[in-house]
Amino acid sequence: MIVILDGYTTNPDGHMWKPLEEIGQLTVYDRTRPEEVIMRAKDAEIILTNKVCLRKQEIEQLSKLRYIGVLATGYNVIDLEAARKHGITVTNVPAYSTESVAQMVFSHLLTVTNHTEHYAIQNRAGKWTNSPDFSYCDTPLTELAGKTFGIIGLGNIGQRVAAIAHAFGMNVIAYTSKTAEALPSYIEKRTLDGLLAESDVLSLHCPLTPDTKYLINYQTLQKMKSSAILINTGRGPLVNDLDVADALNSNHLQAFCADVLTEEPPIFGNPLLECENAYITPHIAWASNEARIRLADVAINNVRAFIEGNPQNVV
To answer: What are the residue ranges of helices labelled H in the chain?
Structure first.
């Protein structure tokens, strides 16, 4: 029996799960609350989950469970130690959203530098029509070429973002565990303090660990240019929301662009939602049609490979 605990965000209409019906009895739930996991998965040999957690207490009660497929790259929702103890294989879906997330980084950046949506709204309100000049402009416009683009973390997404920034004519610097010799010629390695001080744009692409939680905070923000643009499409808790909001409100940071927040959906009263220069999208950088298809295809192939005795993408 195959159970998908939260299939809606990955595949809202469910059609991409059809191949799993050829593998075994399939039950798909759009969403599952923590207290519903045991009841819904008690007969499952295979579970697919995106954000629904499977901790020790759930794993120990699911006696038939042999496989967990995470419908994402990150797998912090699974207690891997408990899974290994009970002989349960856990897989993920690596690198499916690289292009989509990199694209979102620059969608956010161009929103700040070119104000495309702002001018579309202004035009609908008749601002250009009623302008005495052929060109109507009420915001500063910024050219990216020659600016310094800083990256924290050079995994698949970080490297793709670096390549796009380079194509824009930007100077690319990075804080990374990779050696300087291992980097492409257009990326220069920096210390964290050096990166913070030099970056006109700073984009976060590192994993969330105890060392990187709240990496961007009051102290690190003080080391950045007040004209800098901060972008987070990685993990919400890489930044301290309150400290970033304070920096925006006190003009110590030009703009904050994010597709992720510390709590999702955001809690009522999150100060970033009220900041004029905070541009927040609702965790959709991964969710292009193309990325969703790749995600489902790899997840299904992971299940097939496990059943055939050759598991792939094991974490």
So the answer is: 18-21, 37-41, 56-59, 80-85, 98-114, 116-124, 156-167, 192-198, 218-222, 241-249, 289-307
Q: Mean pLDDT for the chain?
A: 96
Tokens of 204: 């976060």
Phi, psi for residue 234 in degrees, rounded to 5: -90, -95
Q: Which residue is catalytic, options 36, 117, 143, 264?
A: 264
Which residue, 26, 27, 25, 31, is CA-closest to 12? Answer: 31
CA–CA distance, 109 with 130 (Å, rounded to integer): 29
CA 9 to mean position of chain CA atoms: 14
Catalytic residue list contains 235: yes
DSSP 8-state secondary structure symbol assigned to residue 45: S
Pairing assessment for the beta strands 67-70 and 26-28 based on DSSP bridges = unpaired
In the residue annotation, 205 being an active-site residue is answered as: no
Active-site residue identified among 115, 160, 235, 292: 235
Among candidate residues 34, 37, 35, 28, the one with its CA nearest the CA of residue 10: 28
Give yes or no: 166 in active site: no
pLDDT of residue 14: 81
Residue 248 class from Cβ within 10 Å (0-12 exposed, 13-18 middle, 19+ buried)?
buried
The yes-or-no verdict on residue 68 having pLDDT over 90 is yes
Question: pTM (2 decimals)?
Answer: 0.92
DSSP state of 258: E
**Which residue is catalytic, options 205, 283, 292, 294?**
283
